[in-house]
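Late entry, calcium ion complex.
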Amino acid sequence: MKIKTRLLISGLVLALVGLGVTPTQAVVKDKLLWAQYFGEKAGSKANSKFWSHDIGNGNGWGNNEQQYYTDKVANLSTNGKGQLVIKAIKLDIDNPKDNYITYWCISCEYSSAKISTRDKLTFKYGSITARAMVPQGEGMWPAFWMLGVPRNSCDGWPSCGEIDIMEVRGSDTYHAVQSLHGPGYSGGAARSHYFTSADIPLHTKYHTYRVDWLPNSIKFYIDDNYVGGETKTSVAPDSWVYNAEFYLILNLATGGNFDGGKLDTTIQSAELKVDWIKYSTLKGYGKLTKY
Ligand SMILES: [Ca+2]
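Prediction complete; structure with ligand written out below:
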């Protein structure tokens, strides 16, 4: 009986190999590990079980950014139609309600929001997708990205790694950028992959922005189109720093180096809308850790 089964299985494996399908791919069914649909009533904050806010200007967060992040509902909340909205709002130097920002941050032009799963939720491998509509306008800088959790083998940025699943320059919404930043390849030297929207700018519609992440391999997709990727071999002799836990970040920056320091301050407000975020296993890989 056992021998027969074994023969049967080896026959099956041989048949699959013959078809060019590896047995693992045929057997593993990927599953959803975590999702955010943002279906809460209008004006709800991001779920504090998973998300926390970064507040302030952080000295431009290393990029000369010109926004002040708050945890106010006006800057980040659900819209009652199934989306989380991050809204950059022009600061008014003459308005007393903005004084607490404009007094301390002279370069700040907008209030906005940034949330991350740091210290709450980490991800290792798998497939992560956000369905989002980005804003338009010079200097608007929406981002859906990840940073490596600090660990013994690295020391902050960029040695712990950064995976940018979506970045768009508000001055050119025909393109999106998906990048890896690591030791020896960060900032302007990041491993970046560019998506070109054929004829319709990205800000007019929802699109899916995705990373497929496996040991020693990362691939980027937009609307299920392969945009580009990297492997441990392709970044060598620089190090591959992505076989580790990362946390998610969602924000809308304004100004800063990414869009060339430009900022159209006649824009009164701009929105990054996120319809959902999904995290699933990929070829059986994927681990969600709650802290
Ligand atoms: Ca939704």
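The longest strand covers residues 269-280. Will revisit in the morning.
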